[in-house]
Amino acid sequence: MFSFLLNFILVFSSFSIEYSITQKDFDRKSYYKYLGSEDVQGIIAQINLLKSDATNKGFVAALKMKKAGLSGGVFEKLSLFREGSTELDSEIEAHPSHTELRLLRLMVQEQAPRILNYNDDIATDAKNIKTNYKLLPSETLKVLLKYCNKSKALKVSDFQLD
Question: Helix, strand, or coil here: 161?
Answer without folding.
Answer: coil
